[in-house]
TrEMBL record:
PANTHER family: POLY-BETA-1,6-N-ACETYL-D-GLUCOSAMINE SYNTHASE. The keyword Membrane applies. Belongs to the glycosyltransferase 2 family. This is Glycosyltransferase. It comes from the Bacteria. The keyword Secreted does not apply. It is an enzyme of class 2 (transferase). The chain crosses the membrane at residues 6-26, 288-306, 342-363. One of its GO terms (molecular function) is glycosyltransferase activity.
Length: 373
């Protein structure tokens, strides 16, 4: 390889290295300053848990009792039966008779009026009797019976309007599961650390809370009702401020989810989520795009520099420095976020992460999806 070409590649690699180190040390490292509560909160704030479910009879049978039996004195659970035809209606009717806390809202669909998750959630929110709303999905289960208690405790501060929780996926065998879990952890590190810096840009609907008053004051999902995704991240992106948003990371506050089991299903999910990114605030799109592109280019340039000397030695040195910095910053975070097993495999997982992050980011901006289930 020509020496001049090596210099150009090393120069570009150096720029990407600096950008990545800034994100790592100045942004993501902020999450290490978070200290969760050590004791169960005593504050009792009335809470309405809202779940939208379409053809989820198996998940509702398995997971809903864990939510209905939470260790919390004042809460209700609203399940929106969103046009289900799998027997969910009968199941929910039986559970409603068994659990006084359960309230079922039924949404029906016609040829002239097609519903979506945002419409179903809006119906659930309207039916909620409490101002503090806690959201999750039918395929999710709390890590403990104190999930509501830890999430709701954040509303003791009257300025708090949005609480960002965390929802890891179950650990299973296989490459797909590793990709899903690693991406979930990296995404969480990004949005949780951003919130701690007063720049919250998204949340995850599997474990998210906000006030009913806030929802109706901003006209709910009206500004992005025309797209299927975004009931969680777009709502947070448009309405979070440095003063009204906090995070909750006590282990008991986590919500676990079953991961996708096929690359096709996972791909469709990622395309749907990526499509909402087009409506993020400009500053957040720049922030996320800079991280994604610089991360991918760092690895591409690194591998390119391995083909020649002396560029190879400088490239390897930069790679090692970044890897050691990642271990230093991520060790506590990955342990907290249920990903301790990734610590020593970060270079491999991180390379794949930035590769498909850019692929799905590009595909998500070009392709539309017309359904959420």
């Amino acid at each position: 390889m020509d020496l001049q070409i090596q210099e150009v590649l090393l120069g570009l690699l150096g720029i990407c290295f600096i950008i990545q180190m800034v994100y790592l040390l100045a942004y993501q490292n902020k999450l290490n300053a978070y200290n969760p509560l050590t004791e169960l909160p005593e504050a009792v704030i009335p809470v309405s848990v809202v779940i939208s479910a379409r053809n989820e009879i198996e998940n509702l049978t398995q997971n809903l009792p864990a939510i209905l039996n939470q260790n919390y004195p004042d809460f209700e659970v609203i399940v929106v039966n969103d046009c289900s035809f799998d027997g969910s209606a009968q199941l929910l009717e039986e559970l409603e008779a068994q659990y006084p806390r359960l309230k079922v809202v039924t949404v029906t669909e016609t040829r002239k009026f097609k519903t979506g998750k945002k419409f179903a959630l809006t119906m659930g929110i309207k039916a909620a009797k409490n101002d503090c709303l806690l959201f999750t999905d039918a395929d999710c289960v709390p890590a403990s019976d104190n999930w509501i208690a830890f999430m709701a405790a954040n509303f003791a501060n009257p300025e708090t309007q949005i609480v960002l929780g965390y929802s890891p996926y179950y650990r299973k065998r296989g490459l797909l599961n590793s990709l899903i879990r690693f991406e979930t952890i990296k995404t969480a590190i990004n949005y949780l650390s951003a919130a701690m810096r007063g720049n919250a840009y998204m949340g995850v609907g599997r474990n998210l809370a906000y006030r009913k008053e806030l929802f109706f004051s901003v006209k709910g999902f009206a500004s992005h009702m025309h797209i299927m995704s975004g009931d969680d991240d777009l709502f947070v992106n448009q309405n979070a401020t440095p003063a009204n948003t906090v995070i909750e990371l006590h282990q008991d506050s986590f919500i676990f989810s079953e991961p996708k089991t096929s690359f096709g299903a996972w791909g469709r999910q990622k395309r749907r989520h990526a499509g909402a990114g087009k409506l993020y605030k400009a500053k957040h799109k720049r922030m996320l795009a800079t991280d994604a592109v610089s991360g991918l280019l760092f690895y591409l340039l690194f591998f390119s520099c391995l083909a020649a000397e002396p560029a190879m030695y400088i490239a390897v040195s930069l790679f090692i420095v970044r890897w050691l910095a990642q271990i230093l910053v991520y060790k506590k975070q990955f342990t907290t976020l249920q990903g301790k097993d990734f610590i020593w495999y970060i270079p491999i997982a991180d390379t794949l992460y930035y590769l498909y992050l850019n692929i799905f980011g590009l595909v998500g901006t070009l392709k539309k999806t017309n359904q959420w289930k």
